[in-house]
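Example for tutorial group B:
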């Protein structure tokens, strides 16, 4: 068997670049005016996105919020559990809270939706009775949300 000789071609030979040949083959690149317009358009788009983000953040800061703290519960009997909690929110705010009572298996045995407010202070304490279908072992506030702000 004869092997064909391998030749090392070496680095490619480069000569002067004929801009007209390159332009004919690949087309002309964007002019400096076009590049400038694209850059300005990109900067404007980024500025608009940043302004929108700031506006959304500012709007969310103005919306009232409510924080809840569970203070405790009392199992009154097999059909009632009293839940005590405090709300931290702006005075004049009305909140809707979901209260639950659970049994020893952590199964929900009672549920109540209560509306609190408009509150008169920033931190207010409340209690509500949750009717249960069997003896509960715990009661708490599951969630609260603002329904009206004064």
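The residue assignment follows.
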């Amino acid at each position: 068997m004869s092997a064909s000789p391998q030749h090392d071609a070496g680095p490619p030979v480069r000569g002067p670049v004929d801009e007209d040949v390159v332009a004919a083959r690949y087309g002309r690149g964007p002019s400096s005016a076009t590049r400038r317009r694209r850059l300005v358009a990109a900067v404007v788009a980024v500025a608009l996105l940043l302004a929108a983000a700031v506006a959304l953040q500012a709007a969310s800061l103005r919306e009232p919020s409510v924080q809840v703290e569970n203070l405790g519960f009392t199992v009154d009997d097999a059909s009632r559990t009293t839940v005590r909690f405090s709300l931290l929110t702006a005075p004049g705010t009305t909140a809707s809270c979901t209260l639950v009572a659970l049994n020893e298996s952590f199964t929900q045995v009672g549920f109540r939706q209560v509306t609190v407010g408009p509150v008169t202070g920033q931190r207010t304490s409340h209690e509500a009775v949750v009717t249960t279908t069997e003896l509960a072992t715990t009661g708490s506030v599951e969630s609260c949300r603002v329904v009206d702000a004064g």
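The two ends are 97 Å apart (CA to CA). Compare this with the pattern of hydrophobic and polar residues in the output above.
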